[in-house]
Specification:
Elements (H helix, E strand, L loop, with lengths): L6 E4 L5 E3 L7 E4 L6 E2 L5 E2 L3 E8 L6 E9 L6 E4 H8 L2 E4 L4 E4 L1
Parallel strand pairs: 1-8, 2-7
Antiparallel strand pairs: 3-6, 4-5, 6-7, 9-10
């Protein structure tokens, strides 16, 4: 299970990534040969692929996380900014200490 339950926006990530198998609404075992490539050039094993939803606590709006990768060795939940914006029809505003999702 993820020791840090927060989702961290990542402008370089091509997919959403978590090590928590419980967050998935639906998933299937990944049988491909690709790994998640890290900035240092190393790769991490992908166990499964699926999707989940995140709820905005102030508006009760559900956002979809498609192509969510279950990577058991990752230690933070990563949110792909480009994929999230495209899948949910939103954009991000970045500030020095936070970001906002807008539609």
């Amino acid at each position: 299970m993820v020791s840090d339950p927060l989702w961290y926006p990542d402008t370089e990530a091509t997919h959403h990534i978590t090590n928590d198998p419980i967050v998935f609404n639906k998933k299937q075992i990944y049988n491909g040969s690709e790994n998640v490539q890290l900035g240092n050039g190393s790769g991490m094993f992908i166990h499964s692929v699926g999707y989940t939803s995140l709820c905005n606590s102030s508006s009760n709006h559900l956002f979809t996380l498609n192509n969510l990768l279950h990577v058991p060795c990752i230690n933070k939940n990563l949110l792909s900014i480009s994929q999230f914006a495209r899948d949910n029809g939103v954009f991000f505003e970045f500030f020095p200490n936070h970001c906002r999702v807008k539609n």
